[in-house]
Design brief:
Length: 363
């Protein structure tokens, strides 16, 4: 979180955990360690980056950003938590003109331990506590040794600012109507808070620009197509296909993201004209599968017998969900929203013929 906040400045670049640069181009490591989590293997900065052992990582990144994006970045932010890595970079930068700044981000131990327990429920609780105490001691020792500019920042202090503002604006005796009014006006409150921070003025973003940037950033993890256009990868990355058979609102996007992290180039809920036409014609050997490792959501959920015959050895994943919470999620998703684009006759035919039938059977 801190990295994203600091990296938002025009002269800074948030490089994530710099220590993962050790995994670059190492095929024996999983994809989520070797690739940028936003852009994947085609990242203009990290993709195909060959590091020079005689030059520090941050200088190489700054040069690559200037070459690839024509942007001058003078502040590089590394969120690596590994003590050996931080100490190594500290020593390497001593022989350069770069200024080093260390931020020791702390958090209440109970929050850290509980977070680890949720993430790694199979681990011994006592071992989690022991590891956390050991890391804190080593981090504090490193912080004390560091001779350059440094500061301690507490995770809870960031949250306290928001809590204090809410407490001041919404007293305990507030009525439900007053609380609702506060929530409704949160965008205006946020705008006033940002103005008080004296950020440099930024041009307004249109919804189209936001959509364009979102699709650019997340296209690798949550691939979607529409409007009859698609930019698929050159070839599939898996020797077999993977299909997500779950219905919409059962975690199909999360499944798609997880499969991408594992290295499978899977497309979620394709809506391009070619795929929709192939559905109406019963062509289940989808053209998309010449380029992708699989498809998820209701596009393929009714056709697993055909897909199993057409692609022997394929993997099928069925995501399920409690019926009541699923229906509630569907209601929220589709409330006051048309199920299909009424101007798209092909899409109307598909949803009428297959989607409605499949979800009725599920009920």
């Amino acid at each position: 979180m801190l990295g994203f906040l600091l990296g938002n400045h025009s002269t800074s670049f948030f490089c994530g955990e710099g220590k993962k640069s050790l995994y670059l181009n190492q095929e024996n490591f999983p994809a989520y360690k070797r690739f940028c989590k936003f852009c994947g293997p085609d990242c203009s900065i990290w993709g195909q980056l060959s590091l020079n052992a005689e030059q520090d990582l941050y200088e190489q990144l700054a040069q690559r950003i200037l070459h690839k994006q024509d942007q001058q970045k003078t502040l590089m932010i590394d969120s690596s938590s590994g003590i050996p890595w931080i100490r190594q970079q500290w020593q390497l930068l001593q022989n350069t003109t770069a200024q080093r700044y260390l931020i020791f981000l702390q958090r209440d131990g109970r929050g850290v331990v509980n977070s680890y327990r949720r993430k790694y429920p199979e681990r011994d609780f006592a071992e989690i506590i022991k590891k956390w105490l050991d890391n804190i001691q080593k981090s504090q020792a490193l912080f004390d040794e560091f001779t350059g500019p440094k500061m301690v920042l507490r995770y809870e202090e960031i949250a306290k600012l928001a809590i204090a503002q809410t407490r001041a604006a919404v007293p305990q005796n507030s009525t439900p109507a007053e609380i609702d009014d506060y929530i409704v006006h949160l965008p205006e409150i946020a705008e006033q808070a940002i103005a008080a921070l004296d950020f440099p003025p930024q041009p307004e973003l249109s919804p189209a620009e936001i959509d364009q940037q979102t699709n650019k950033i997340w296209s690798w993890q949550l691939v979607q197509v529409g409007g009859g256009t698609i930019e698929p990868p050159a070839e599939p990355r898996s020797p077999y296909k993977v299909f997500g058979l779950g219905l919409s609102r059962t975690g199909t996007k999360s499944l798609t993201s997880a499969l991408h992290i594992l290295g499978f180039k899977v497309i979620h809920y394709p809506e391009d004209e070619t795929t929709l036409r192939e559905l109406t014609e019963g062509h289940y050997q989808f053209s998309l599968l010449d380029h992708f490792d699989g498809i998820t959501d209701i596009t393929v959920s009714p056709f697993y017998p055909q897909l199993d015959q057409l692609f022997p050895g394929s993997k099928f994943i069925l995501t399920v969900r409690d019926k009541e919470s699923w229906l509630t999620s569907l209601e929220k998703h589709w409330f006051n929203r048309p199920a299909v684009d009424q101007s798209n006759q092909i899409e109307k035919e598909i949803h009428k013929k297959y989607s409605g039938k499949r979800e009725t059977q599920r009920l």
